[in-house]
Amino acid sequence: AQTVTQSQPEMSVQEAETVTLSCTYDTSESDYYLFWYKQPPSRQMILVIRQEAYKQQNATENRFSVNFQKAAKSFSLKISDSQLGDAAMYFCAYRSGGNTPLVFGKGTRLSVIA
Amino acid sequence: ETGVTQSPTHLIKTRGQQVTLRCSSQSGHNTVSWYQQALGQGPQFIFQYYREEENGRGNFPPRFSGLQFPNYSSELNVNALELDDSALYLCASSWDRGTPTLNTEAFFGQGTRLTVV
């Protein structure tokens, strides 16, 4: 069974600074997908960024980028120029190909300090 | 806004009672998945429905059951509620085109907060 581990229960960052959230996963599959979701106090899970395992290039979405290390099974999220609205729970998630469910980590609570 | 709506937003039930949670999927989506998120934890997969059939189930007992309707909306039913069932229940919808590759993203509703007393 696949597992996702987030080793940082809480992180904090100064506004406008950069922060990196860590995620490792375990799988025996070669084709899969990785995601970072943001869950603000409103509770709705919002997709931040996704990475296909077959792509070597790291995904980027505006201020959000990932460092995908397939051999090490590591998938970290970097948030640049942090904003107060970035404060939330962040979940790393794994998904096999096809119509399979998401496997989530336990999450990292990110605080942004003004 | 993702187009996925869940009702009710909050619910308080007594141990031993039954509860039904509802999810209206995003237009055009044929797959609905349900997740349980306990306080301070990541979401755990309960089950998934594709075109009105259950096509995947997590490690949850049979008292957790569901339905998907022809319009692809869905219900989650929990019988004989226990205190540990208190959690946020999330519904996610996506579209499966029936191929091994990843289909559309999973879009989540805002969840139903269930408290069992």
How would you characterize this protein structure?
The complex is a heterodimer of chains A (114) and B (117). Chain A has 114 residues and is an all-beta fold. Chain A contains no helices and twelve strands. In chain A, the strands form three sheets. In chain A, strands 2, 5, 6, 10, 11 and 12 form a six-stranded mixed β-sheet that branches. The mean pLDDT of chain A is 94. With 117 residues, chain B is mainly beta. Helix content of chain B is 0%, strand content 49%. Chain B is built from no helices and eleven strands. In chain B, the strands form two sheets. In chain B, strands 2, 4, 5, 6, 9, 10 and 11 form a seven-stranded mixed β-sheet that branches. Chain B has a four-stranded antiparallel β-sheet with strand order 1-3-8-7, with no helix packed on it. The mean pLDDT of chain B is 91. At the A-B interface, strand 6 and strand 11 of A face strand 4, strand 5, strand 9 and strand 10 of B.
Secondary structure layout:
The complex is a heterodimer of chains A (114) and B (117).
Chain A: E1 3-5, E2 10-14, E3 19-21, E4 24-26, E5 32-39, E6 46-52, E7 60-61, E8 64-69, E9 74-79, E10 88-96, E11 103-104, E12 108-113
Parallel strand pairs in A: 2-12
Antiparallel strand pairs in A: 1-4, 3-9, 5-6, 5-10, 7-8, 8-9, 10-11, 10-12
Chain B: E1 5-7, E2 10-13, E3 19-24, E4 31-37, E5 44-50, E6 53-57, E7 64-68, E8 74-78, E9 87-94, E10 107-108, E11 112-116
Parallel strand pairs in B: 2-11
Antiparallel strand pairs in B: 1-3, 3-8, 4-5, 4-9, 5-6, 7-8, 9-10, 9-11
